[in-house]
Specification:
Layout lengths: L2 E4 L6 H12 L2 E4 H9 L5 H8 L1 H13 L7 E4 L8 H10 L1 E6 L2 H9 L13 H19 L2 E4 L5 H14 L2
Parallel strand pairs: 1-3, 1-4, 2-3, 4-5
């Protein structure tokens, strides 16, 4: 069984997927890493997004995701916007079970504010308003696309990966 993690930017998808892969011998895949390799190894994902613009970035991401061909026991950390595209959702759901890492607003706000480069959807003059809008626009998408939701509030990385393992066992 493959696992696909979805959630907001800075929700911990990569950190959790890496930890899970080490603990349970799953292959770790990060779609942002695949985009970086395909585009330019010297840029950060935010820089690639800025350089390409929204439409071309979304097309590149869709192309990368469409080519994913996994063996069993892989865990994928997706980009925060990957689930804004119905083709991506269909492809990712065909690969395995989707788990939404739901992060409390306060935690997410703190993490986003600490990023070296603010995402383009964040107005630096109205950070809290931008984050509120971001949260309300994506939460329903993630819930609808996921097979399971894990509330990460007050949970350690170990507790989250244990919860994912329990989820995995529920699916056989």
């Amino acid at each position: 069984m493959n696992l696909i993690l979805c959630g907001y930017k800075a929700s911990g998808k990569t950190t959790i997927a890496k930890a899970f892969s080490l603990n349970y011998q799953y292959k770790f895949i990060d779609t942002d890493d695949l985009i970086i390799k395909a585009y330019n190894n010297n840029l950060l994902i935010g820089e690639i997004y800025s350089e390409l613009g929204s439409e071309k970035f979304i097309e590149l991401e869709k192309n990368i995701i469409s080519k994913l061909n996994l063996k069993e026991n892989s865990i994928i950390a997706t980009g925060g916007g990957a689930f804004n595209n119905s083709e991506n959702i269909k492809k990712l759901k065909s690969l395995g079970e989707v788990i939404y890492l739901k992060v409390p607003k306060k935690t997410l706000t703190k993490r986003i504010k600490s990023l070296k480069i603010l995402p383009r959807f964040i107005d630096p003059n109205k950070i809290d308003d931008s984050i509120n809008q971001y949260l309300s626009s994506r939460d329903e998408i993630y819930k609808k696309a996921s097979d399971f939701v894990i509330d990460t509030q007050d949970k350690t990385i170990s507790e989250i990966i244990k919860k994912i393992k329990e989820t995995r066992q529920c699916y056989g």
